[in-house]
Amino acid sequence: MENKAVVLGANYYIGLSTIRCLGIHDVHVAAVDYAWEDSYGLESKYCSEALIGSHYKEDPEGLVTFLIDYAKKQDSPPVLIPTADPYVEFVDDHLPELREHFLIPQQEQGLYTKIMDKGTLHTLASEHGVAVPETVNVDDENFIQKVESEIQYPCLVKPVDSPAFVAKFRSKLFKVHTQEELLEKVNQAKEADIEVIVQRIIPGFDDHMYTFDAYLDQDSKVTHWVTCQKLRQFPVNYGASVYTQQKYVPELFELGAKFLEGIQYKGFAEIEFKKDAETGRYYLIEINVRITNLNHLLQKTGINIPYITYRELTGNPLDPKAVKEDMNLVFWYAYEDLLAVREYIKTGQLSPQKVIKSYFRPKAHAIWDPKDPKPAVAFGKKLAGLVVGKVTGRS
To answer: Which DSSP string corresponds to 262-276?
Structure first.
């Protein structure tokens, strides 16, 4: 294959699964990160080139130059695939110049960022008839009174820009139970210069969280899709998928495809919905516009998003496909799931028996692959280092 694939991000399992999804089809994969340390995806046998470039935030112009210099040396333009939110923001910021040298699904600069921004996303969703949780802007007049009348406690303080919030607070959001807590958390965010909104909690346990994962071609038509149901997440209740099953839910296609096609989206997107336990209504929670945590699970169901992207952008698209049956497959990120299980049991949300019973199913592992074991070994060394650091730090 003439065109190479440049994968941005190799220090997390999403980058690793992207490398594998392309490499198993003999695509030449050049994986890029800003440091060798902890970038266990670079250990994959499917990684054809391991490249260390500038940091996306500390020196974005340096990374642009690094990538364009690399692309100029190739016989054909490479396909560029970001695998983390900061890399998506970087690509969006520099989309016109990067598109001169790389194949990238999205053509409209700013659309990625608009979708990642909770405020503009909710406006878009409402315009296209998709329900979103009731929300109050903290800059509104009398916002405390609005929260108490329209949302009530407990409620969520959520970031407009998730990557910046997570980097600062090591959490996706704040859950608050009183006016005092609300003001405290809003002020914390303001002091960190991070914009937040206040949102109603949609009732329902974590298994009321669902995803619609789809690829849209250059005509903004959904060509491939699959739906999933979260079973456990970490941090519990408001975190990332750690144990999730593929589950056919046709209503999510009706909602998700209409919305993504309506905003003229191109490429891969994952919409997270929550099903209201009291009304059964699906609410749009957020959209991931980069390769998802569930990437390996999607691939095992026959929806290989990185390869679908590669084939379409290089002019040889795969036939459309949708997963319209339950395949009894689950995604498992063992390390964080064990941390989550401890918390679920401790808080009485799950019983040990239910957890144990859930494990007896075919799995798509986040990191482990018997055909490509070196990344798991490197990740194990990283964890061992963290444990040693904690022990020696205490002593």
So the answer is: HTT--EEEEEEEEE-
- What is the value of pTM for the model shown? 0.92
Task: Report yes or no: 196 and 154 within 8 Å, Cβ to Cβ.
Answer: no
Going by C-alpha positions, the residue among 144, 173, 181 that lies closest to residue 157 is: 173
How many residues can be counted in the chain? 395
CB-based contact 166:232 (threshold 8 Å): no
Same domain, 251 and 343: yes
Residue 231 belongs to domain spanning:
206-361
Q: Is the pLDDT of residue 395 over 50?
A: no
Q: pLDDT (tens digit, 9 = 90+) per residue, 32-66?
A: 999 999 999 999 999 999 999 999 999 999 999 99
Helix (H/G/I), strand (E/B), else coil: 175:
strand
143 and 213 in a single domain? The answer is no
What is each CA distance from 43 to 36, 56, 145, in whole angstroms? 10, 21, 54
- What CATH number is attached to the domain comprising 15? 3.40.50.720
Are 218 and 354 in the same domain? yes
Q: Do residue 14 and residue 157 come from a single domain?
A: no
C-alpha separations of 269 from 60, 84, 168, 292 in Å: 24, 13, 25, 8
Query: Do 147 and 220 reside in the same domain of the chain?
Result: no
The kind and range of the H/E element at 287 are strand 282-288
Is the separation of the CB atoms in 314 and 308 below 8 Å? no
- Residues 322 and 131: their CA atoms lie apart, in Å, by 24
Q: Are 27 and 52 in contact (CB under 8 A)?
A: no
- How far apart are alpha carbons 94 and 107 in whole angstroms? 12
User: Does residue 328 come out as left (phi exceeding 0), alpha (psi in the -120 to 50 range) or beta?
Assistant: left
- Residue 110 corresponds to which tokens in the numbers above? 């700013």
pLDDT tens-digit series, residues 166-217: 889 988 899 999 999 999 999 999 999 999 999 999 999 999 999 999 999 9
How far apart CA 388 and CA 384 sit, in angstroms, is 6
Whether 93 and 172 map to the same domain: the answer is no
Is residue 122 situated within a structural domain?
Answer: no
Verify that 210 and 153 share a domain, yes or no: no
DSSP secondary structure of 45-76: TT-SEEEE---TTT-HHHHHHHHHHHHHTSSS
Per the structure, the count of domains in the chain is 3
